[in-house]
Amino acid sequence: MPLTVSFADDALLLHLNAGWMRPRGAPGRATWCIGGEYAFAPRWSVSLESYGSHRRPPTRQAGLRYALVEGRLDLDASVAKTPGAAHQLALGMTWALPRLLY
């Protein structure tokens, strides 16, 4: 169940998420996430996030996003850390299709 709350004319977004997962052959467990995004300059934003599931250590993540084409094409990089595991680096691209297609 996701929820996003906007502040400062969408420059600051707070994301909350609660859910449930049941891996095959394992008992179900609650999941959660809290995160935020801040647009600090035209085309640039940063994000912080923490997520996990019941009785598991949380993962924390920080990222940077640049809009190549505002509202259509973004590039992003993030680093995540879960206690007891190596850092994970992710590089990505988000392409938003025109509203006509969905």
Walk me through this protein's architecture.
This protein has 102 residues and is an all-beta fold. It has one domain. Helices cover 0% and strands 66% of the residues. The protein has no helices and seven strands. It has strands at 2-7, 12-21, 29-41, 44-53, 59-69, 73-81, 88-95. Strands 1-2-3-4-5-6-7 form a seven-stranded antiparallel sheet, with no helix packed on it. The mean pLDDT is 93.
Characterize the largest beta sheet: strand count, sense, and whether it forms a barrel.
7 strands, antiparallel
Strand order of the largest sheet: 1-2-3-4-5-6-7
Overall geometry comes to globular
| Mean of pLDDT | 93
Strand content: over 45%
The count of strands amounts to 7
Main traits of this protein?
102 residues; mainly beta; seven-stranded antiparallel β-sheet; globular
Describe the structure in brief.
The chain has 102 residues and is mostly beta strands.
List the helices and strands and how they pair.
Blueprint: E1 2-7, E2 12-21, E3 29-41, E4 44-53, E5 59-69, E6 73-81, E7 88-95
Antiparallel strand pairs: 1-2, 2-3, 3-4, 4-5, 5-6, 6-7
